[in-house]
Specification:
CATH architecture: 3-Layer(aba) Sandwich
Helix content: 25-40%
Order of helices and strands: HEHHEEEHEHEE
Strand order of the largest sheet: 1-2-3-4-5-7-6
Distance between the termini: 37 Å
Bound molecules: coenzyme A
Radius of gyration: 17 Å
CATH superfamily: Gcn5-related N-acetyltransferase (GNAT)
Number of domains: 1
Largest sheet: 7 strands, mixed
Strand content: 25-35%
Length: 193
């Protein structure tokens, strides 16, 4: 799987939909081999977004370890794959996963999720689709509450979650710090059962 959008690939991205013959999105469970692309999608946000409260890039190995930990706990990790019909090439267009909110046993019916779409594939409906899929999986697996912790600058993501039934339950000023500035985190919660 390539992690960087090549010149040829970028020409197809505008045509990429879930049903286009030339470039098609599909979804499946993440594999170890996807973690290079996934680390790069995350690290692009580390480098460019004030809403992700870390300045430290992650390694591929750390993502593989996290995938294995989540699998062992029956937590999902799904990826969107863009397939280019002319070349048969595939690339990872985005991912969605969740993990524990807090480790104490009493929190076992609550999860906090992550949703990241590659910058070249944003605005094409993948975020909406992957959030819906994650909500369905969580519901089927007996999760009671799904939580999103979103940097207050990330209005697009707050809006996306609100449209999927998430409700703001907390706004915590100056709990984050990035690039020399305090950051506010917004918690949004959706009851699944
Ligand atoms: C937030 C994010 C997941 C949204 O995914 P996406 O695939 O780009 O979003 P979608 O194409 O599904 O669109 C979702 C909504 O946002 C709107 N939208 C998307 N891109 C937009 C843009 N650039 N400007 C304005 N609105 C936009 C869409 O019109 C859609 O609104 P609708 O429900 O009224 O139709 C994606 O932008 C992303 O990965 N951002 C960086 C990481 C991040 O912020 N993750 C979320 C942290 S919890």
């Amino acid at each position: 799987m390539s992690q960087i959008v090549s010149q040829e690939e970028s020409e197809y991205i505008n045509e990429c939909t879930s049903s286009s013959p030339s470039c098609k999105y599909s979804f499946r469970d993440a594999q170890d081999e996807d973690m290079g692309a996934i680390a790069e999608i995350f690290n692009e946000q580390v480098r460019t977004s004030p809403s992700l409260f870390t300045e430290t890039e992650v390694s591929v190995e750390s993502r593989i370890n996290l995938l294995h930990e989540r699998r062992a706990k029956n937590f999902p990790w799904i990826v969107a794959v863009a397939t280019y019909e002319s070349t048969g090439e595939e690339s990872i267009a985005g991912y969605a996963t969740y993990g524990e909110f807090r480790v104490a046993m009493g929190y076992r019916f609550t999860v906090e999720h992550s949703l990241y779409i590659h910058k070249a594939h944003r605005g094409k409906g993948l975020g909406k689709s992957m959030l819906s899929q994650l909500l369905q999986i969580a519901t089927e697996r007996g999760i009671h509450v799904m939580l999103a912790a979103i940097g207050s600058d990330n209005l697009l993501s707050i809006d996306l979650h609100s449209k999927h039934g998430f409700v703001e339950v907390g706004r915590m000023p100056q709990t984050g710090f990035k690039w020399g500035q305090w950051q506010t985190v917004v918690f949004l919660q959706k009851m699944l059962s």
